Amino acid sequence: MREATKSSTVKGDQVNQFKKILTAARISFRETFRASGIFISQLWGGGYKALLVGLVWLSLTSNLIFDLAELLIQTALYLSEEGSRGLLSSLGLYAIGGRIGAVGLFLILVTTLALLSRTFTLWLGAGYGFAIAIDLESFILDSIMSKDTLQPFGASDSDTLSFLSIFLPVLFFATFSVAIIDVVLTSQAFNSYVQSLSPAITNLKISEIIIWSLLLVFSATSIISWVVLFLTNETPVFWTYPVVGRLLAVILCVVVALLSVFSRGLLLTFSIFVVVVELVRVDQLLIAVFNQVDRLSEVPSELSGILEFRVLSLQLLSLGLIWVAIRSIADGVRKRTRARVDEWVDSRRHAIFGAEDQDPASAKRISVLAVLALVVSVPLPLAGLILAYAARNDFVAANPRKSGLDLAIGATIISWFGIGLQGLALALILWAGVLDIGVFDLIGDLLTELISLN
Q: How far apart, in whole angstroms, are the C-alpha atoms of residue 433 and residue 425?
C-alpha cells in the first residue's frame, strides 16, 4: 500500500515537473517573440512591413552564416588534403580567400548597416539574390581564369547540411519576394496606376479590353515559364540570350502591356507586334544568330499546362486583333458609305419634294425593306443586296421620311462580304475540280497550313 502511494506521488511529481517545464517554455517563447517584435520595431518601425523586412534580414543572415561556415569547412578539408600549401598562400586564391572575404564583408554589412535602414536591407537582399541567380562566383572564376580549388571538397555531405543548403536559399527568396511585392503594391507609383486604371478602361471598347486582358495573361505566363525553366533546368549561363535576353524581353512585355491600357494605339500596335514576333519565331532566330546553347529548351512536365495556356492566349489574341481589324474596316466603310448615301438620298428628295422636305431627324417610321435586307443578307447575300438597294429608293420616295438607313447600309456591307465568300468557295470548288482534289481535303490542307504557322 505504501509502495503504491509512493509510486503515485512520484508520478504526480513528474507530471507537475513536466507542466512546469511546458509553462516555462511557453513563457520563454512568448517573451522571446515579444522581445523580437520590440527589437524589430526599434530597428525598422512597427507593422507588418517591419516584420517582412525582419524576416528578410533573418533569412539573409542565416544564408551568409551558412555560406561562411561551409567555406571554412571546405578550406579545412582542402588544407588537410594539400599539406604543401599553407593557410596564407591558400587565402591568396580567390576561390578561398576571395570568397571568404566577400561573404565576410557582406555579413558585416548585413549585421551593421542593414540594421539601420529597411531600404538598405532590401538592397543587400537584392544583391545577394542577384549573385546567386547569375552564379557570380563561376562568372568571376571564369573571368580571371582561376580554378575552383574547393570544388572537390563538398561540405554538404550530411543530410542536415544538404537540407540547409536547399532550405535556406528557398526561405530567403520566398521572404524577399513577398517583401518586394509588398513594396511594389504599396508604392505611390502603383497606387497612381490603380487610380488611373478605371478611367483608362472606360475609354476602351469591349474588344480592346479583351485584347488587353489576353495580353496580360500572355505576359504573366511568359514570366512564370521563364522562372520555372530557370529553376528546374541545370544552372545555365546567365549572360546569354536564352537566359538574360528572354528575361529582359518578358519584363519589357509585362511593363508595356500594363501601360498599353492608357492608349488604344499602343495597345493594338504592341499586340500586333507580340503576335508577329511569335508567328515569325524571333526567339529561335536569335538563338541561331547568337549560336548559343539553349539550356532552357528542356520543358518539364509541370510546365506543359502553363505553356498550353500561353499558346491559347496568343491564339485568342490573334483572333481578337482580326476581329478589331474587320470591325475597323467595316466602320470605315460604313461611315464613307453613309456619307455618300445621305448625299444621294438628299439630292433625290430635294428634286422630288423641294423645300418642303422634312428634317431627317424627324423620321418616325422605320423602313421595312431595310429590316428585311439586314435579315436576309446573312443567309442570302444576293437577295439582301437587292433589298438593300430597294430600301434606298424607299428612303427617297417616302414622305414623311423613314428611318433605318444604317440598317440598309449594314445589309449592303454584309451582302457584299457574303457574295465574296461565296465567290471564294466557288473558286475553291473549281480549283479542286481541275486538280481532281476533294474540296474538303483542299480546305483541310489549307487549315492545316494556317494552324502550323502558329
A: 12
**Percentage of residues of the chain with pLDDT beyond 70:** 78
Same domain as 176, residue 278: no
User: Which range has the worst mean pLDDT, 19-28, 214-223, 439-448?
Assistant: 439-448
Please check whether residue 410 lies inside any domain of the structure.
Answer: yes
Flag whether 8 is in a domain. Answer: no
- Grid cell locating 263: 492608349
Residue that finishes a domain, picked among 152, 182, 212: 182
User: How far lies 172's CA from each of 165, 177, 200, 267, 395, in Å?
Assistant: 12, 8, 38, 37, 75
- On the CB side of 359, CA atoms within 13 Å amount to 2
Same domain, 318 and 206: yes
pTM of the model: 0.68
Contacts 24+ apart (CB under 8 A), 346-349: 348/396, 349/396, 349/401
42 vs 95, more confident: 95
- Tell me what pLDDT residue 454 has: 46
Residues 6 or more apart whose CB falls under 8 angstroms from that of 95 comprise 141, 146, 147, 148, 149, 150
Mark whether 373 and 409 lie in a shared domain.
yes
